[in-house]
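Design job #97: recover the sequence.
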């Protein structure tokens, strides 16, 4: 069993190295003074300042997301960074009345009833609360456009390997179907427009006070399921905390989604409450994972 634990840990560390831009609709990084405008033709203009320069980016040509389909690309915006049409652009943005969004910077309802939104968050923080590295940790500005449901991210906590380690499991779905990709690098970076990583931040852990980046991993093919053990990957871990924030880029051009769930205390095998909870969560995990053999470790 010990060998299995640390083999899994090594694999998860490899997967966590994925930091490619799998959020395909990043507009820019470290943008300030951000504004959003939408016209009646299904186009959006994002204006902002970055590195002291005013930017105006036009985006169009995509809405919602395609369910994973081999041989067909995921939907994507067409983008124009020239800013040529900014002064003549007729903004018809209406007050936003859509679902609550994580990391929202700006959002509005378009004349056709669809929604546009801008979100900003630090997707590429070093894993395991690593030292800051050049090019990592920027505040990415993401644009989305949707008319139907947004993705659903679910997660639960329990313990694994007889209670030795804290554990997360869950799933990422869109319109009731799993979100997953068809190919990825060995490090876990999606190689198509369908794959999505889930990013986990831990609160008040051994890394220190506040939110710290724990790790990132792929939603599994073809289930959209994921599971993660808080093993001792380095001398400072394990990084289990009092709360966890899980975030995933939305499929296609739909909004990014994020949830926060409470952590657990250390497992007490002499506690009937802990034993009952673990048994309950094992059954839930098996139900969620279904045929996904990667997520049946108890």
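Job complete. Output follows.
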């Amino acid at each position: 069993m010990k060998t299995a634990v640390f083999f899994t840990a090594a694999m998860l560390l490899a997967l966590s190295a994925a930091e490619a831009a799998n959020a395909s609709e990043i507009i820019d990084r470290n943008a300030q003074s951000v504004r959003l405008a939408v016209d009646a033709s299904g186009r959006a203009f994002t204006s902002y300042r970055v590195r002291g320069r005013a930017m105006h980016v036009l985006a169009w040509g995509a809405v919602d997301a395609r369910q994973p389909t081999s041989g067909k690309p995921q939907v994507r915006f067409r983008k124009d960074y020239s800013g040529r049409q900014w002064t003549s652009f007729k903004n018809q943005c209406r007050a936003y009345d859509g679902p609550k969004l994580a990391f929202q910077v700006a959002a509005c309802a378009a004349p056709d009833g669809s929604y546009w939104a801008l979100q900003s968050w630090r997707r590429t923080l070093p894993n395991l609360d690593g030292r800051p590295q050049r090019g990592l940790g920027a505040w990415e500005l993401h644009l989305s456009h949707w008319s139907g449901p947004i993705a659903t991210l679910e997660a639960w906590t329990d313990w694994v390997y007889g209670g030795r380690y804290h554990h997360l499991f869950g799933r990422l779905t869109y319109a009731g179907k799993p979100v997953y990709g068809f190919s990825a690098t060995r490090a876990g970076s999606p190689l198509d427009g369908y794959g999505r990583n889930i990013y986990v931040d831990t609160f008040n852990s051994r890394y220190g006070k506040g939110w710290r980046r724990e790790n990132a991993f792929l939603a599994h093919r073809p289930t959209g399921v994921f599971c993660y053990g808080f093993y001792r990957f380095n001398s400072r871990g394990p990084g289990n905390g009092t709360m966890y924030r899980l975030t995933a880029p939305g499929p296609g051009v739909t909004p990014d989604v994020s949830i926060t769930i409470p952590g657990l205390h250390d497992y007490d095998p002499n506690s009937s409450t802990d034993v009952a909870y673990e048994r309950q969560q094992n059954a839930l995990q098996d139900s969620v994972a279904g045929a996904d053999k990667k997520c049946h470790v108890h």
